[in-house]
Amino acid sequence: MPKILLVEDERSIAEGLKISLESEGFQVGWAKDGNEALTAWERARPDLIVLDLMLPGISGTEVCRTIRARSDVPIIMLTARDTEVDRVVGLEIGADDYLTKPFSTRELIARIRAILRRAPLGSATSVDDVPIEASGVRVDRSRHEVTVDDRPVELPPKEFDLLAVLVEHAGRVLTRNQLIDEVWGADYVGDTKTLDVHIRRLRGRIEDDPQQPQRIQTVRGVGYRFADRPAAGAYA
Ligand code: CA
User: Does residue 134 sit in helix, strand or coil?
Assistant: First the structure.
């Protein structure tokens, strides 16, 4: 579970973000000013830092400089206004990305995932080139390959696309319509039975027991969620 340090002095914003990030499967620590941020960073060694630029005491830019001098941890900066100065300063002192307030939580989560995916492989790699993995299922889109607990599984194109979308958003509930839009396109005119049939076939191929699916979970009345649990060997 990736650890995120959230540095934000406004409690209402921080609490909302913390809840949203935790529901996406992140472990979130909160620091309400620059001093706390530096202490928390040293203690917790987060995988990524979301850093508000405007903080009481030590400013966000100082926090960023101090951490960057000693670590390559990815930093996403939150700026109050979309001014050229904030952006340039933020990126010059070593932030990896920035978001201008107000931003959507969805956008922040997308940026976090993108940075965490590319972080170990260097910035030259595009997102699609990086295999995605959850609950023992690994999807390599550039090679069109799927493995389940390291065992190769052959999938027809639509089932492959559907699995890729589910795994990419592992831990999150996707509605039937979202899945249909992603896999068949927004102009698809069919009924949602097609989706359910594909889900059933996928379960037959990737679940240990398709009658008791552990990976592709049904969320009644809403859609489906791909379980985001560690690979079996992770507990050893
Ligand atoms: Ca602030």
Answer: strand
Say how many Å lie between the CA of residue 11 and the centre of ligand 1: 9
* Confidence at residue 235, expressed as pLDDT on a 0 to 100 scale: 38
SS3 state of residue 73: coil
Tell me the CA–centroid distance for residue 59 and ligand 1, in Å.
9
User: Distance (Å, rounded) from C-alpha 82 to C-alpha 176?
Assistant: 36
What integer pLDDT is reported at residue 143 of this predicted model? 87
pLDDT of residue 234: 40
Identify residue 70 by its one-letter amino acid code: R
Residues 180-215 as b/e (b if ≥16 CB within 10 A, e otherwise) read: bebbbeeeeeeeeeebeebbebbbeebbeeeeebeb
> Largest Cα–Cα distance in the chain?
57
The Å distance, Cα 140 to ligand 1 centre, comes to 39
Which tokens go with 175? 């509605």
pTM: 0.51
Residues in the chain, pLDDT under 70: 81-91, 118-129, 190, 230-236
41 Cα–ligand 1 center, Å: 18
